[in-house]
Write a structure and sequence with these properties.
Length: 287
């Protein structure tokens, strides 16, 4: 969903609800809690990609007593960061864990049994592969990867990996072997790191081979996202994108009858944004 310069992803299947990152603004999340009618409901799994504010800031809203929202599983990698908001979020999760209301899963051991991949089945039969992140690196590089699959494992799939950077993308293939299991070829890619040019390589795009890519960015972000180098690479290789700053909410609907559709609130595909710029990042353009 549209959440400024941030990521916020909501997955629903057969009554199961999963949230992967929740933007930075609590006010925005409050609006969405009302719009989606989530008060008094259960979020089956809340996944924080990594310890940056533009991914966890809005999560605190879901833990407000007034919303009466149950969070069954909370997953994150526990990396240290000196954010008061993150400390507040972790305090809320810990309090619920101590009351037996929430189960905490360390993303580095997603099933709690030492295996690298934990597969969760949603109420409608869709599957979510929760994968262990790269064990070393900066906060972005430690982003938790997940792969979502429709119940028939064929008609729809999506790859999501927060703000993963190039070193992580190489690790997925060369060390973790995720291209073989659970496989990285998907219909939809959540564009890494808001479209930063340090979150995409030619090799990665070839492996994932997405029909659509989504970028979570704001029209006024100070990072130059979506970077011109990223768009140039997508154009060169013939890949299409939508972006929350120009297209608003980006919705993928995969009915149990098969296939999937994509809808946006406004604009068209492959748009430029007000903040887009060329990056001078030295890791940009690695292939
Ligand atoms: Zn971010």
């Amino acid at each position: 969903v549209e959440a400024g310069q941030a990521d916020a992803i909501y997955i629903e299947n057969g009554g199961s609800r999963i949230i992967y990152d929740a933007g930075q603004g609590m006010g925005r999340m409050e609006q969405l809690i009302y719009e989606f009618g989530l008060r008094g409901d259960t979020i089956d799994m809340m996944i924080l990609s990594h310890a940056h504010f533009d991914h966890h800031g809005g999560m605190r809203e879901f833990f407000k007593v007034e919303h009466d929202i149950t969070v069954r599983y909370f997953v994150e990698n526990g990396d240290p960061n000196t954010s008061i908001a993150l400390a507040e979020l972790r305090d809320s999760v810990e309090a619920r864990v101590s009351r037996g209301e929430t189960i905490f899963r360390d993303a580095d051991d997603p099933c709690g049994d030492g295996s690298a991949i934990c597969t969760v089945t949603l109420g409608g039969g869709a599957k979510l592969h929760l994968m262990k992140p790269m064990p070393h690196g900066n906060l972005n590089e430690r982003s938790v990867p997940v792969k979502l699959l429709a119940a028939d494992s064929a008609s729809f799939s999506m790859w999501i990996a927060g703000d993963a950077e190039n070193a992580t993308l190489r690790w997925f293939e060369e060390e973790a072997g995720y291209h073989q299991h659970p496989g990285m070829d998907v219909d939809v890619l959540k564009g890494n790191h808001h479209g930063s040019c340090n979150g995409v390589t030619t090799r990665f795009l070839e492996l994932v081979d997405p029909t659509w890519t989504t970028f979570g960015a704001s029209d006024t972000n100070g990072y130059g996202h979506v970077h011109e180098q990223t768009k140039a690479l997508f154009r060169d290789l013939g890949y299409n994108w939508y972006r929350t700053d120009q297209n608003g909410r980006i919705l993928f609907h995969a009915p149990s009858s098969g296939g999937y559709s994509v809808s946006i609130e406004r604009g068209g595909m492959n748009m430029d944004g007000g903040a887009d710029d060329w990056a001078s990042d030295s890791t940009c353009g690695e292939m």
